[in-house]
Design brief:
By secondary structure, the protein is an alpha/beta fold. The strands form 9 sheets. It has a 9-stranded parallel sheet. The chain has an 8-stranded parallel sheet with strand order 16-19-22-25-28-30-35-38, with no helix packed on it. Helix 1 crosses helix 4. The radius of gyration is 22 Å and the shape is globular. The termini are far apart. About 50% of the residues are buried. It comes from Methanogenium organophilum. One of its GO terms (molecular function) is glucosamine-1-phosphate N-acetyltransferase activity. This is Bifunctional protein GlmU. Keywords: Acyltransferase, Multifunctional enzyme, Nucleotidyltransferase, Transferase.
Length: about 400
């Protein structure tokens, strides 16, 4: 059996983080999310992959190559138009014979769940019990057979959702070839499932562990899950006077300077300088070549590579892109006064604590204040003493420089 991974989309809901990289290359515990999937599928016993790529595909090809580093074989096929998941499936036509696994590339799932769906008769779809079923395609089933799929209904008939993991025979390509554009102008994979549902032979396989990464704030949950069983691994330098509590991973070439206090779980990449006197709280992930300066505090945040966070800065529950530079004294708020769920661009994060989404190469002047729920586009320039709120477009200049 082989696995087809759908990795062609831009991921517009992940903006501004996808302005310079495909969605599937966004980091979870300092590794691209799709790398976690490839490793889980490999650990489930499948070592042959076809990656359907498109948007900024070179990033994926350059990183994974032929898959040898991971002990797998990877081939690529291109979805030119990104015209929906059904169109992405058709891009793999002619490369697949017999039974195969098909997965969306923007989620985290365990090897045990992959084995579970592979043990089912085909065709089969993985389903997961969700607290927000209105955001997904909802599955109804009777005796383990799918009876209906309802896409993003405001009044869903249940809470069991389509997890985007399928086991197919190659006859699914004939159904994909018959697809017509949906009302939103895309070829929907779920429409290709209608004949199997009508025949009563589409199997629903419950998954025990699944994390969707459809919006920037989902990266926080994904990292929290990835770090749940973290084991300490200190390969960098730790100066006298550093205190480490819980599991901490410190990559080679990084240094923790005196007075720094870290509450794990926490992952710090290579080439980083942390401190002196930095406080890092649980579930924080710091990418390669970052600098966190004196008297700064980070909490439950994801910091992409080469970002500089100098002295007297606070960042809580946020996602920060690559190559950013925070002016000294900048603060990112992460809690509304009314304690309600934070919204970003009018969309609820489902989290009472969430700070900001900050794109790549954003420069802040000193003493800036970033309001809860802000979304700051790539290449934005923020003047000193500026209050940042709402959605800031790419390449904007705000405040007095």
């Amino acid at each position: 059996m082989l696995c087809v991974l759908l990795a062609a989309g831009e991921g517009k809901r992940m903006a501004p983080l996808t302005a310079t990289r495909p969605k599937v290359m966004l980091p979870v515990a300092n590794r691209p999310m799709i790398e976690h999937l490839i490793c889980a599928v490999r650990d489930a016993g499948i070592d042959t992959f076809i990656l359907v790529v498109g948007y900024r595909e070179k990033k994926i090809r350059d990183y994974f190559g032929n898959g040898e580093k991971w002990g797998v074989s990877i081939r690529y096929t291109v979805q030119r138009s990104q015209a929906g998941t059904g169109d992405a499936l058709r891009a793999a036509k002619g490369l697949v014979k017999g039974q195969f696994l098909l997965m969306n590339g923007d989620m985290i799932v365990t090897a045990d769940d992959i084995r579970r769906i592979c043990a089912s008769p085909a065709p089969a779809v993985g389903v997961f019990e969700s607290k927000t079923p209105e955001q997904y395609g909802v599955i109804t089933e009777t005796d383990g057979k799918v009876t209906g799929i309802y896409e993003k209904s405001q009044n869903p008939p249940g809470n069991m959702i389509n997890a985007g993991i399928y086991l197919f025979d190659d006859d699914i390509f004939a159904e994909a070839d018959r697809l017509v554009p949906s009302p939103r102008g895309e070829y929907e994979l779920t429409d290709a499932l209608v004949p199997a549902i009508s025949r009563g032979n589409l199997h629903a396989v419950p998954l025990l562990s699944w994390c969707d990464i459809g919006a920037p704030w989902n990266l926080l949950e994904a990292n929290e899950n990835a770090l749940a069983d973290l084991t300490s691994d200190i390969r960098g330098d730790v100066e006298e006077g550093v205190i480490l509590k819980g599991a901490v991973v410190l990559a080679e070439g990084s240094v923790l300077r005196s007075g720094t206090y870290i509450e794990g779980p926490c992952v710090i990449g290579s080439g980083c300088t942390i401190g002196p006197h930095v406080y890092i709280r649980g579930h924080t992930v710091i990418g390669n070549d970052c600098h966190i300066g004196h008297a700064s505090e980070l909490k439950n945040s994801v910091i992409f590579p080469r970002t500089k966070i100098p002295h007297f800065t606070y960042i809580g529950d946020s996602v920060v892109g690559s190559d950013c530079n925070f002016g000294a004294g900048t603060k990112v708020a992460n809690l509304r006064h009314d304690k309600k769920h934070v919204k970003v661009g009018g969309v609820s994060t489902g989290r009472k604590k969430f700070g900001a989404v900050i794109g790549d190469n954003v420069l802040f002047g000193i003493n800036c204040s970033v309001n809860v729920g802000a979304s700051v586009g790539r290449d934005v320039r923020v003047g000193p003493h500026t209050v940042v709120s709402g959605t800031i477009a790419d390449e904007s200049v705000i405040g007095r420089n």
